[in-house]
């Protein structure tokens, strides 16, 4: 079934306790999961007036089961037609299903503050997000093979697959539901059946900003309809599943669908500008900061430093731009690889410390000639004296290096 994510098994481990602390809840198979850390860099000024960088690493808590595995059931949708379409996961033929007459409230809702955490999927790059976690009904917790957290800008997937690993289609469904289309990037959700109040805009913004950074919110108060646009497409996909058949501050049952193309020319101009900014931000993250500052003209002294350092001690010689940029890129990659190797060693060596590591790194050492990885290797280096070679034994001369084959 292309649209439906593979459901987790319904076997219930006997060690799950939903009343315990989420940070300590685990199963018998969760020992293989390596706890991940979140890193925060803070720049401070010490008493001597020097700027230092303080790196704070904290452990992430394990994800907890959202429902009791013994009560988790996977049921097929109600038969509203004569033929079941496995690609769209819906019935077709016969009587047409009326969405407004089949208003069924969602059984549960995801709470990011308490339900999110690391799972087995955090050890595998490119893992997809858990569809059942978004709906608030995942029973596996830390043993789930999908991600239990919100999508970020670094979570990038092919255009024909959504963040849950489901295949997109060439066109939208007639009711603008389902997975969506791969022919355009849709970040806007249509929210219908909203209870009309005086503070409807505040209510919609408060509930939908929980699923990611919101770019724009538009509310049609008289019709009880809202349009929410997210900065990231993956967040809009996550929010669509998380808020389907949910309620806001009242007992309404929301109708969450994909929004159609906005015919306003201003909207098309905003979308083109956003794509340009997104491409520029990706380039900034892929290149060294000093190189970006030179291109954007924010570091006028960079050209002078290059002329002095690029001579490599030779009078009148100045390295070409391609040689200089290759050297900067190599130094930047070595430093990045060294930081990643140190983080991996710290993750493997740490048992369960949750707090400040107190790693104070002077800013002057970060911009030195040697990278941090090289300095760390030199600290553990111990010079050893080489053994003396034995004295040559005196004896008769021999034919060494002769051209004669007999030697």
TrEMBL record:
C3H1-type domain sequence ranges: 124-151
Predominant subcellular localization, coarse grouping: nucleus
GO biological process assignments: mRNA processing; RNA splicing
Residue stretches of biased makeup (Pro residues): 1-11
C3H1-type zinc-finger residues: 124-151
GO cellular component terms listed in the entry, alphabetical order: Prp19 complex; U2-type catalytic step 1 spliceosome; U2-type catalytic step 2 spliceosome
Keyword terms: Cell cycle, Metal-binding, mRNA processing, mRNA splicing, Nucleus, RNA-binding, Spliceosome, Zinc, Zinc-finger
Biased composition regions of type Low complexity, renumbered to the chain: 12-31
Cellular location(s): Nucleus
Domain RRM: 187-261
SUPFAM superfamilies to which the protein is assigned, alphabetical: CCCH zinc finger, RNA-binding domain, RBD
Keyword Nucleus carried by entry: yes
Region described as Disordered: 1-31, 384-407
GO-annotated molecular function: pre-mRNA binding; U6 snRNA binding; zinc ion binding
Family: Belongs to the RRM CWC2 family.
Purpose of the protein: Involved in the first step of pre-mRNA splicing. Required for cell growth and cell cycle control. Plays a role in the levels of the U1, U4, U5 and U6 snRNAs and the maintenance of the U4/U6 snRNA complex. May provide the link between the 'nineteen complex' NTC spliceosome protein complex and the spliceosome through the U6 snRNA. Associates predominantly with U6 snRNAs in assembled active spliceosomes. Binds directly to the internal stem-loop (ISL) domain of the U6 snRNA and to the pre-mRNA intron near the 5' splice site during the activation and catalytic phases of the spliceosome cycle.
Name this polypeptide is given: Pre-mRNA-splicing factor CWC2
